[in-house]
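Module 6 notes. Inverse folding takes a fixed backbone as the condition and produces residue identities as the prediction. Think of it as a translation problem where the source language is geometry and the target language is the twenty amino acids. Below is one complete input and output pair. Work through it position by position during the lab.
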């Protein structure tokens, strides 16, 4: 986490995402993600694997191990509807569902015109078989 706990505790929700050092190996990235999950302020795993369609592959990590840790930490997972991200792939969302995880469907909006991305996030969730009672919120 980039900020100390005394700042994080002032927010209602903390969405944590990988934004740097994408090229770490699988072991290092897995440890990094697991360490972040231990922070009690972490509530949503944002654009989970950091992929950019046709530009950047998903970060290398042990996704199943991360999903199991998320289930223990009671953290939700973002399904990102930005057409350049479309992250979390349905194969992983299906496993997350089996573990009883909850989801956030996001537009990843950086301007109001990006709100139209919600439909892509909903389509991704439907491909994974996610039902409305498994979705905490859309944004």
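Target side of the pair, the amino acids:
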């Amino acid at each position: 986490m980039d900020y100390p706990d005394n700042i994080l505790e002032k927010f209602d929700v903390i969405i944590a995402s990988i934004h740097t050092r994408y090229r770490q190996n699988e072991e290092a990235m897995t440890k990094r993600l697991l360490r972040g999950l231990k922070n009690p302020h972490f509530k949503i795993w944002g654009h989970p694997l950091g992929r950019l369609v046709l530009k950047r592959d998903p970060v290398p990590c042990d996704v199943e191990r991360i999903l199991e840790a998320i289930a223990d930490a009671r953290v939700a997972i973002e399904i990102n509807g930005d057409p350049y991200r479309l992250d979390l792939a349905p194969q992983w969302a299906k496993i997350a569902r089996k573990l009883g995880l909850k989801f956030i469907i996001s537009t990843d909006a950086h301007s109001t015109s990006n709100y139209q991305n919600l439909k892509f996030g909903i389509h991704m969730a439907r491909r994974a078989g996610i039902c409305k009672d498994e979705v905490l919120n859309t944004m």
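Reference fact for the lab report: The chain is about 35% helix and 15% strand.
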